[in-house]
Design brief:
The complex is a heterotrimer. In chain A, strands 2-3 form a two-stranded antiparallel sheet. Chain A contains 3 helices and 3 strands. Chain B contains 15 helices and 11 strands. Chain B has an 8-stranded mixed sheet, with helices on both faces. In chain C, 39% of the residues lie in helices and 19% in strands. In chain C, the strands form 4 sheets. In chain C, strands 1, 2, 7, 8, 11, 12, 13, 14 and 15 form a 9-stranded mixed sheet that branches. Chain C has a 3-stranded antiparallel sheet with strand order 6-5-16, with no helix packed on it. A two-stranded antiparallel ribbon of chain C has the order 4-17. In chain C, helix 14 packs across helix 15. Chain C is elongated and about 95 Å long. Classes of the chains: A alpha+beta, B alpha/beta, C alpha+beta. Chains A and B meet through helix 1, helix 2 and strand 3 of A and helix 9, helix 10, helix 11, helix 12 and helix 13 of B. Bound molecules: magnesium ion and zinc ion. The site of zinc ion has 3 residues of chain C, from loops. Zinc ion binds next to loops of chain C.
Amino acid sequence: MSNKESIVDIPTVNKIARLSRLNIPEASKQNLTNDLNNILGFVAQLDEVNTSDVKPLASVTGHKLPLRSDKVTDGNIEDLVLKNAPESSSGFFVVPKVIE
Amino acid sequence: MSDLLKFDLLSASIALKNKEFSSLELTNAYFEAIEQTSALGAYLEIVKDHSINMAKASDKNFKNGTARPLEGLPIGVKDMFCTKDIKTTASSKILENFCPTYESTVTQNLWDDGAVMLGKLSCDEFAMGSSNETAAKGNVVNPWLKNSKMSPGGSSGGSASAVAARSALAATGTDTGGSIRQPAAFCGITGLKPTYGRCSRWGIVAFSSSLDQAGPLTRTVSDAALMLNSMAGHDKKDSTSANLEMPDLMNYLDRGIRGKKIGIPKEYTQDGISDDIVSFYEKSINWLKDSGAEIVPVSLPHTKYALPVYYIIAPAEASSNLARYDGVRYGKRNEAASLDEMYEITRGNGFGEEVKRRIMIGTYVLSSGYYDAYYLKAQKVRRLIKEDFENVFEEVDYILTPSTPTTSFELGKKQDPLTMYLNDIFTVPASLAGLPGISLPVGLDKSGLPIGIQLIANSFDEPGLISTARVLERSAEFNFIADGAAK
Amino acid sequence: MNESINLKPGQINGETGIWEMVIGLEIHAQISSKSKLFSGASASFGAEANSNVSLVDAAMPGMLPVINEFCVEQAVKTGLALNAKINNVSIFDRKNYFYADLPQGYQISQFTKPIVGEGEIIIDLDDGLQTTVGIERLHLEQDAGKSLHDQHPSKSYIDLNRTGVALMEIVSKPDIRSPQEAGAYVKKIRSILRYVGACDGNMEEGSLRADCNVSVRKSGEEFGTRCEIKNLNSVRFIIQAIQSEAERQVEILEEGGKINQETRLFDTSTGETRSMRSKEDAHDYRYFPDPDLLPLEFSDSWVQKIRETLPELPDLLKKRLVTDFGITPYDASILVEEKDYVDFYQKAANGKDGKLTANWMITELFGALKKENISLSNSPISPENLGQLIALISDGTISGKIAKDVFAEMMISKKSPSDIVKEKGLEQVSDDIEILKLIDKVISENEDKVKDYLGGKDKLFGFFVGQVMKLSQGKANPGMVNKLLKNKLK
Ligand SMILES: [Mg+2]
Ligand SMILES: [Zn+2]
């Protein structure tokens, strides 16, 4: 990860901001780029660790996933579901029109 | 300061049972204190009418002889816990007016045990920070050092500041990489992060799901035990909640540590750690030795990689956990003509700089072409860090470390994100391994700021952690009170 | 175009030669569970907007997923029916993307370690041939909500009722070579799902939808660039969409163009596919294991228990019907197409003439139901009554011809055939004396024709049979009429 590819530039910041759906003002892009490079440079220390025989950690507890039985125990709470909605109409959430 | 504020959680509980004063009196004393210390900025929201009703109900229970374990004790709640019909913002502008229709399991457990809710406490935005400077509503001030504005630490900075300033008898916190232990250390109080899975995460605003744990911030170790007794427990609504009974921690307060082995990891004494902290760390080692413990030098060889691992995994999980704040179902929306624009402006304006920085890092390390090099690598090294602890716990019962490399710093002083991240260097490893840890105050440095020492136990050994911490607490005799509460 | 070339299904005769199709299918099957995959809200269809929604489905802050046991069982059961490898440890991953009907900002799915691995199924083609299609994997995932775009000029309306409903995604290997094979594959998967009981297979309501990956190549060449046609909800559309997409690709390639790997939609009004604008934004799903869930683990003995609950599956059932009931493999393949069919048949044919029962069921009953547009489960004729009708034919109580009238009456009145026969006095007359009386009457009324017959006009025999039958109102046993007439007219 210390290779050249991982060096973040402004086009990369634009791409990542777009993927994250974050509007970043032009004026703060350079600072953000620097911060990201510093942080990525810092975490690049992990290159030193040999992990060729190590499995990634799946969970810290080692417990099995609990299963619940198939019963309807929830729902019919439209008022609660919609209560905090910035915009809703006749039981629906409302958003700017989406074009498919 | 009202005499009523001198009681800690446990002694107040006894006094209430003995009818020395009522919960209503105690609660009102805290509301006075909240007003007097308002300049600290610890509270985001107070719910006086609600608190008074709860206190009155508690007084009725005392009268009827039906008092519960935390009956009538007024506590504060970190704003990461969703509280029914009470504004919950995670200190973020994006949740400015969010009012949950549900109560988090942990806070519900507290209310079910009789605790009285004072209000919601500030924190770093979405719990991302170590100085409480990223909260949308502004910094929280540490009550220590009358004449300066010091950081209370973070992210549970509001909780730590309020407990230290005696504007809450105790408070809840959440700890992802040190967010309970580091502010507890900075504010001269006790902070306990339980084993991952002890406290339900249901209803707590998620930052990094594989690390987040709720825990108490209190004045004493006994208070931490009393409060965690109520907070912890298996919850079917959280798939990662441990289905294990926790023994009553109050039975472990005075068991001592004779014959126990305390590991001293060589990797925790490094450059950059302040001399005063080193000296109190050495004192702490001696105190434990004097109390009958055997001191064993140990090694946790992957310690230096804990922060890099943490700054990959936590942002990665956060980038995904925070995707739901999109202005569609709740929270603040910025109107725009298209859906994508609406998302971008809403999130761009709603999140603060640190949160955006972490979302960007998290998105980057998960993105195509980088996943293996960053996220997968970090999960592998995380396993090595966990195995380091497993190996050491074959040899010893507890591990003793400093809680932080330095004591509190002035607000606004540390600007560079990386320097800020180094604050959590001693707390992050146990978080990555899911282990329980406690920070307690053992002394003051030359400038009069509290110093915290951390004990780490094996998974689900909170009872042993409490016994050991009590020994250290007794030896340290930390009786200082923050001088700048009403600044 | 060279008209004389005999093209096989799935081949396209272009300017530059013959192209073949390479097709892989991703089938999304809704699991027939009562509640959702990770929440306790109802998974039922057609409720008021946002009523089958829990706080978990709406992705409120702090809400967490807890998995539905039934859904896990059904995935394993289906995996076993697909002769596939069951993975005792699997992982749930988050697929991250922003969309209005995806409240969490990610879909919980399985990426690197699905619950079911490789398998294969045999599909039946129209010409009676069979072929094998490989299964790449089966994984569990959440469905998304629904966006309505036609409620308001500048707004979309969001209903989260389907959000979080349990789906199995069954991914085939790129083994399919024609639209017809793709259709047969979907039918076979649907039939297996129904046998297992994991999914109702209702394509109209969207419980079964297919994404088709289509590419073209010249025989023997490497796979070409593929396009994915999303969300097809009928076998007919699948066949049409693949054909038109393959033709589009051939046209582009022959003009020297390149295929863009992209997601396309099938326009049912034009019968053509078109590019999906909204999905064109460079997607990078940033899959990673969902930290809210632990690895899903189960033991071999638990899988064995599930295996023991598996019903007899169509391929084996078909073989058994041929041996047990003596029917043709063709009839058997029709009967095993649906579990209802075979259940009905086995009840009707129990202790009866199997071949005759199959004929009556496939030709008469299916024909009549289709005409009335009724499903077999709502058939006015019960399997017991069909069986009784077959018995009445076999033991000579009624003739085949009368049986058709009885059948028609059964369709209307739902009465049992023996009641109808009794009420209308339709029993076949097999009594010698009765039949001889009728024969005598016919002979006496047609003396000229009897003379002609005896004089060598053999063809008139049929006329006498017809007259006797007519006089008996169809009830006379035709075999006996034949025999007795022959004796009489010697
Ligand atoms: Mg697909
Ligand atoms: Zn899918």
